[in-house]
Structures are given as C-alpha cells and as structure tokens.
Amino acid sequence: MPTKTASSAADWDKVEQLVKSNERELATMADHLALRQWATDNGLATKALFPKFKTVLLKRCDIDYGALREQAHEAEREQLSEAAAAAPTVELYAAGDDEAGTFAVCGPTGAVAWYGEFFDDDKTYTAGDQTSADLSAARKAVFLAGKTREELDVDAINLTLHVLNHEVGPHDLSLAATRVRVVVTVEIDNESPALEWCRENGYKNWREQNLNHLVASDTAADEGEVA
Fold it and tell me: What is the pTM of this model?
C-alpha cells in the first residue's frame, strides 16, 4: 500500500505533467470558469488535486486562478448592485441558538417566517459554536430573500438583515447572496424577535410563508404590494 507521502508526490507529478503538456492551451483561457472546466475534463477537479492544479498553474503559466475568480465575482457584484438600485427591499431578522440547536427567521413586523431545529446535514452550523448557529440562520435569511425575489419576478432584490452577532457580516454572506441575486445590508441589533422564536416548540417551513409579506413596508408601497 502506498504511503501518504508517496500518494501526494504522485499527485504532484500528475498535475505537473498535465499542465506542462497543455501550457499553450491553458494560457488562452481568460477566466476561472474555463480553467475549472479544463480541470474537470482532465480529472483534476478533486479536493486533493485542484489546489495543486492552482499552484502549478501559477508557477508554470503565471495564471492566478484565485485572482481571476475574485475579479469575476467583483464584476458580478457590481452588476448586481446596479440591478438592485431600484429593486424592492426584504427586511428579515435572523438568529440561531446553539444551546437549543434551533434557528429562526422573522419578517419585517417580527412575525416568524421560518423556524425549527438545525438539520444534521446543515453545512454551516456546528454544535457548540454559537457564531456558526447565527451564521447559518443568516444564510437561511439570504436564501429566503432569494426565494422572495423569484416570487416577485425581479432581476435583483435588496435585503436588510438584522442579526445579534457582530461576527456575522456581509462578507460572510456575499457568495451565497450573489448566487441568488440578493444585495445584503447587515444591521447588528441588541434584541430580536427571531431569538425568541428559537425557544418556541414546533417548527414552520418557509414554504408556508407568504413571501410578499417579507417586503419592507416602504418598498412594498412603491412596488404596489399589499402587506
């Protein structure tokens, strides 16, 4: 059985050879998506190999995959910000409770829109970590804002998100928000109706919520929505 060191060396050799043999083709690729697809097509888009691919790509081709990806994301964020300038605003309160293992998201009036226990396969929440509980709840709020955008059939939407944890900021939500075309503003509050719902029995699925009621009253009036 090969040792871990031997396997790692073999991985490096594989990546080096593939990149070396295809330097000219790789040099013509102007964005990270094309590079990612090339890596996928050549069996390098794995947890073990892709980091090595990025390293060898920079060394041999002077191509900084991370920089290209960030440039693309920045351009997308700018376009999204422009689209959201005249868009409606959703207002949500989000909180997690690590002790109870629960989360809640409330609408602009404080009425609960979605709450219950964290699922075992939650990708953000880690038991024993309160910040991860708050962050998971905040990302659920972003998801809900995205669903509201779809319901309203608009190209982008704004989200004013109230949280209790100062360690939860826009940078933590940026990627998820961009994917669902939501522009997030985070406000840190001292109290929240969402935290109270974290200790309530039962649950409410977001699909039970009238998404139109999550639009802030001032923009609801502008958009002709009835709260």
Answer: 0.72
